[in-house]
Each structure stands twice: as structure tokens, then as C-alpha cells.
Amino acid sequence: MTIPSKKNSKQLTYTLTFEDWLEFTIDSHQQVPSMRRMKKFSHYAIGTVYLGFGLIVVFVQREMLFGISFLFLSLAWFMLFPRYHRRRTIKHLQKLMKNGGDSVLSEHVLDFDEKALHITREGQSSTIEWSSFEHFVINEQRVYLKLGPLNGLIVPRSVAGIDDFIRACQQHIATPMTTS
What we know:
The protein is α+β, with helices and mostly antiparallel strands. 48% of the residues lie in helices and 23% in strands. A 4-stranded antiparallel β-sheet has the order 1-2-3-4, covered by helices on one side. A 4-stranded mixed β-sheet has the order 7-6-5-8, with helices on both faces. The longest helix is centred in the middle third of the chain and has 35 residues, at 64-98.
């Protein structure tokens, strides 16, 4: 379904992939201070507890084998936690898809002009004024237009006409951010 063209409006048509959605979610987790703190706590606190317990067992109980196993468990936690966090995020998004959240991955038609963005997907249509966006993020694969810390619009950079869209974002949204 396409939106009728308005004068001076441009249109992008794209379908989001699961990878687009996943990367947006992970980026959002990095941008929200409370979520970033929770991730760091899980990463470092749990590993430190294993390390401390291993050292106590080694030096107080004189149980080398048992203590060293906790020291290795601590090291493994420090090294493997980022993969574990990513995998947990993937499972959460898959659960959302299973419960009807897969409309995010449908075809999007984005029509933009001087005043607003007009988005259509799966028969639903919405209009978002440029002033509603807090900032936008440009990375190698995607452009994120952030409405808030955890929600926004994802546009793949591989879409035809993306350069005009980025210029419109730079013109209408006050604070661009560039990430790798």
C-alpha cells in the first residue's frame, strides 16, 4: 500500500529484517543509563562474586581444585557475558515475534516532506512530525530516528533515496549522532 504523493514529498519503501530490529534494541540498551548500569552490574558483579568466592576457597579453605574452578568460572563469565546478553536479547525479540510483534518486520512505506513523516505498514498509517524526534543516529547499516530512549524509527541505509532522507533528518532534527 502506498501513500499518495504530495507535492515536494519523497518516499522510501523498505522491509525491516530481524537483524535491524536486534541492532536497534541493543543500541537502545546502550543509550539508556539505567539499562547500561544493569548490564554492567550483571557483567562485573556476578563475575566478581565468582572471583571472590574462588579466592576465599583457595586461601581460607585451602581447597585448590574447587577454588581454581571458581576462578575459571569468573574468567569465563567476564569473557562470555556479552555473547550471553546478545543471545538473551535475541530470545526476547523472538518471543515478541511469536506473540504477534512481527508486524515490525513488515514492509514500510515512509513518505516525508517539510512537515512530517508519514509511515504506512500492514494497512496501518501514522504521521509523526519532525519535532517529535529527540535525535537521530546514523551508523553504517541503519538510521535510527529516536522518539524516546526505547522507541523510534529504523530505516536501513541500503534503501534507495536514503541520502535525501538523511539530509531531511539533518535539516529537521536538532541533534544528530553518528556511531560505527
